[in-house]
Amino acid sequence: MKVARAPTAILAIVSFARADAWMGRQHLGIIGNASAHQNHAVPKLGHLTPHLDLVNTPNSIRGGSSLDMSSGQLVTTLVPRIGILTSTLLYFSPMAAVLNASEKKSLGDLNPIPLAIMAVSSLCWLVYGLSIRDPYVTLSNVPGSIASVYYVTAVLPLVQGKQLRSTQSIILALAAITINLWTWLSLTNKTILEISSALGSYASVLFIILSGSPLSTINKVITTRNSASILTQLTAAQVINTSLWSAYGLAIKDKFVWGPNATGLGFGLIQLLLKLLFPSK
């Protein structure tokens, strides 16, 4: 597992550092100023979306270098940066189980459906982050996009029968919807703000689906009284990550931030409850 943890730590640190370096840059008018956000109602969606006004605000104004930082400033500046680390942990939490299944040449109790959804969801969040030139959203999804593609390529050869067909159908359906959405948005006369809003909404929906996807085996868990199909690491990372971003969203009073994350937190707590009621055997 040392091999898996080293890239995780390196990618997280690099993403954290790059976000800090990006904070003072101008964003070429793609996002615009604070009044533009209010007029066009650009959503700040999903498990990693920071308050967009912070991106265009200098460090000195945001309190990034102030020693007497208020609690509100602390939540709106430090929390998104910590969120980069927690999101990286969320994406890399299935790594141990995937490596173990790959070495044993057997899927065992590993549920491939969350991994399939993660591959598309992380890429959609990456594209959304690039569309609004947001450092938090973009950099935090680079490691996850790479890791999730590896998960699918490593696990898919081990899936068989009905489960294989279900996993392939999910990947194909989500890929088809995503490609068609991107194509439609590129060929329409919509503004950049409207395109970013559509991309963010779609990515947010995918995140909610991803958060609840481990519960696809809930019948099996209850019937067998065995929660081995629900990954402990993924559940713990989901609860921590969504708790952090739910608190941040409430602090800035942004329903597009706390809404999807609060939903994901609820799904995570249900999974945690199942792990406690029906321990893995």
Q: What does it look like?
A:
The chain is globular. It has 281 residues and is mainly α. Helix 6 runs antiparallel to helix 9 and helix 11 runs antiparallel to helix 12. The two termini are 22 Å apart.
What would a concise description of this structure say?
The protein is mostly helical and 281 residues long. Helices cover 72% and strands 0% of the residues. It contains twelve helices and no strands.
Question: What are the SSEs and their pairings?
Answer:
Blueprint: H1 2-22, H2 34-40, H3 59-62, H4 71-92, H5 95-104, H6 112-131, H7 135-155, H8 161-187, H9 192-212, H10 218-224, H11 232-251, H12 255-277
Helix pairs in contact: 1-4, 1-7, 4-7, 4-11, 5-7, 6-7, 6-8, 6-9, 9-12, 11-12
Order of helix and strand elements from N to C terminus: HHHHHHHHHHHH
Helix content: over 70%
> Sheet bearing the most strands, described?
none
> Structural class, from secondary structure content?
mainly alpha
Mean pLDDT: 77
What's the total count of β strands?
0
What is the gyration radius calculated from CA atoms? 19 Å
Unreliable residue runs: 1-6, 12-68
Molecular shape: globular
Helical stretch tally = 12
Q: How much strand content do the residues show?
A: under 5%
**Cα distance spanning the termini:** 22 Å
Which characteristics define this entry?
12 helices; mainly alpha; disordered N terminus; 281 residues; globular
